[in-house]
Amino acid sequence: xxxxxxxxIGTGGLALLAGCDRIAATPAGxxxxxxxxxxxxxxxxxxxxxxxxxxxxxxxxxxxxxRTNGTRDPGTPAYQALAANxxxxxxxAVNGLVARPLTLSMDDLRAFPQRAQITRHDCVEGxxxxxxxxxxxxxxxxxxxxVRTDARFIVFTCADLYRGEPYYESxxxxxxxxxxxxxxxxxxxxWLDVGHGAPLRLRVExxxxxxxxxxxxxxxxxxxxxxxxRGKGGYWExxxxxxxxxxx
Length: 248
Hints:
single chain; alpha+beta; Sulfite Oxidase, Chain A, domain 2; Molybdopterin-binding protein; OxRdtase_Mopterin-bd_sf; OxRdtase_Mopterin-bd_dom
């Protein structure tokens, strides 16, 4: 029987893995974590209704503590300067295959159609938490930029550095225009703190936590992932052989 990552998380199998860096250091752990999807990923994507909504929860079901995943503070001089000014000078660039490149402030983002959703975050580090996220839908931002029909992927570039390079991730257009895919600036009715990705992070609710890029600085619409990092679509995909499609 092939175990999916969801079933592995549910049975506590990931309790042996303390975090992404430990997974990176253990080839056997990577094999266990991703073997199911390596074998049936194409079938999974073909049979799964990718337009379906992720489960949403009631306010009384929210977790009392919502842990941080990945980087807890970019710590770079540029990011520290933005944080010191409460991100008043921060701007999100929307470029690539778009008719109208955008440079958006937080006030600009709050003017877009908003969505609030209480969902569960499933992390490859072996934990889950339920929280309320709020922000504009990614689809509305892409429409405002006039994303072109030859764009196939959306690439996110972040302020945190891994081995001296900005963290990056990508999703396809199906996930980009999914109604629950948002650019979140609030968690549990408060502005994001640094540990949770301030000032803005991606929420793509039907994928595992490493796809939810934090500390967003730039969004690019591209026709191919070939020129992004090593061509697999994300930092962990390129460096640790994580699956690009982390659907759950």
